[in-house]
Amino acid sequence: MAQIRPFFCIRPCREKAARIAALPYDVYSREEAKQEAVRNPDSFLNIDRPETQFPDDTDMYDEKVYQKARELLWQQIADGTFVKEEKRCYYIYELTMDGRTQTGIVACASIDDYENQVIKKHENTRAEKEADRIRHVDACNAQTGPIFLAYRADQKISRVVEEAKKQEPLYDFIAEDGIRHRVFVVAKDVWIQEIQQAFAAMRSIYIADGHHRAASAVKVGQMRRKAHPGYTEEEEFNHFLSVLFPDDELMIMDYNRVVKDLGTLTPAQLLEKAESIFELKKVPKEERKPQKKGDFTMYLDGSWYLCTVRAQDIPSDPVKSLDVSLLQDLLLEPVLGIHDPKTDSRIDFIGGIRGLDELERRVEKDCAVAFAMYPTAISELFAVADAGLLMPPKSTWFEPKLRSGLFIHALE
User: Model's pTM, two decimal places?
Assistant: First the structure.
């Protein structure tokens, strides 16, 4: 039973929403974040990445940096840049990219559901990455970036979403990257009840993206519980900001690999070894994109090769059968000596949004070989999470990215 509840949203005033909305804090380097904050003084990056307000030699983890985020947020709430809603509502968040639309429910999820594995994860988190967001959420006394959750499509929720989208949108803008964002409020009590009951009937919900944000939000909630021993379940710190999407609307893009050197091998030797492991054939550039599970393509020495994993080499294990696992276990580790892709500096990962030309560019610039992957399926993600297992690093790349700053959840 999933507790997905409406909340008192803090959101931008309508006329500023498009300029405030920002890509997630972790897609920018420090330099990129600073440049964007200078370019757009209204960007939510000023709050999400408050080191942008300080000289470059300032320690980005200094306490004064987090206090600056708090100061900016609550100052803009006070001056009307952000509006505080007086009724608990859900929100519909629709994103359209390249003609394809996905629509989520903005709500608050339960930290108990996270801890009890009703909300399931498929990635490990790193303490040092959690620490930054823990301090940011705690200092701001608010969650500013939603966690991207997925659920198995439900007809009752779809019906409410369809009806709610007949209203005038709260926001409707096209961002600079061409993605259209529309937001609708779900304020009717009957709609709220139907959504809440539909989620309550679900046994599992899945983190699609935002594992570190989720873990950080949960840990802040645990800290607040210890500080408030008489707390009730209604306390806001027991819940974290989320956007929940039905699985049949989600798109996972490929997450590709480049390797900086071939170790002791020559290109001809690597090709020979690949031919002994896979069904291999050279393909023209226009056929470089893998078309099915069990296929990946390799860019080596100026040519593309289609590599097909033999059926007998695909195990039934939900993790070992992932294409990224097959590449790692059959080639990257035994042939190229990449034993731990999380820590090995010889391998790099390139999100599918950057295209396959980027793989060729990297090989021509500073790498020896590139591998284009077939995207992981959402059903594979669910299977791994349902088995209580974890995916290899960089297995999924979701697009479009949720914007930060459109929805804020105060912790009290």
Answer: 0.93
